[in-house]
Amino acid sequence: MMDYVTAKWLHILSSTLLFGTGIGTAFYMFHASLTRDPPIVASIAKNVVTADWLFTATTIIIQPVTGFYLVYLADIPLTSRWIMWSIGLYLLAAACWLPVVWLQINMKRLAVDASKGKIDLPALYWRYFRWWVALGIPAFVALVVVFYLMVAKPV
């Protein structure tokens, strides 16, 4: 059994990795896309997909495990409003992230193909890009609110 401080440290560390990786990869993917340069987009997209699998996929699992464990150790009812809101917003962020991963993988493939063919990024890339942005915004906002709820624990 893990003590409270260790569990809290893991929870904070994994939330930092989750949020930091998300905002960092989004920043680079967004700006690489705006260059409209297929080799640049392909290179950045490869790194974004790798970072998502290494950091986001692992921390998206660690977060609820450590979170529920902390709730258990602190004897906080799961029916507490801030816990229920945190869970709901976390699930919203995760529901946005899953299609974003699929979009990123396909955007990477389209950018690699465009780079190899020395052609512009296709219209499909830009359709995926719009969806990627549209899903990223609510995921970002949801996690910002979850961070607030974790810190403030409003009654």
Quote the beta fraction: under 5%
Shape type: elongated
Quaternary structure: single chain
| Mean pLDDT across all amino acids | 97
Radius of gyration over C-alpha positions, nearest whole angstrom: 18 Å
Structural class: mainly alpha
In the predicted model, the low-confidence regions spanning at least 5 consecutive residues are none
The strand count comes to 0
- Provide the domain count: 1
Helix content bin: over 70%
Order of helices and strands: HHHH
How many helices? The count is 4
Termini separation comes to 29 Å
Largest sheet: none
How is the secondary structure organized here?
Layout: H1 4-35, H2 38-74, H3 81-117, H4 123-152
Helix pairs in contact: 1-2, 1-4, 2-3, 3-4
Short description, anyone?
With 155 residues, the protein is mainly α. Helices cover 88% and strands 0% of the residues. The two termini are 29 Å apart.
Describe this structure as you would to a colleague.
The chain is mostly helical and 155 residues long. It has one domain (4-152). Helices cover 88% and strands 0% of the residues. It has helices spanning 4-35, 38-74, 81-117, 123-152. The longest helix is centred in the middle third of the chain and has 37 residues, at 38-74. It is elongated. The two termini are 29 Å apart. The model has no long low-confidence stretch (mean pLDDT 97).
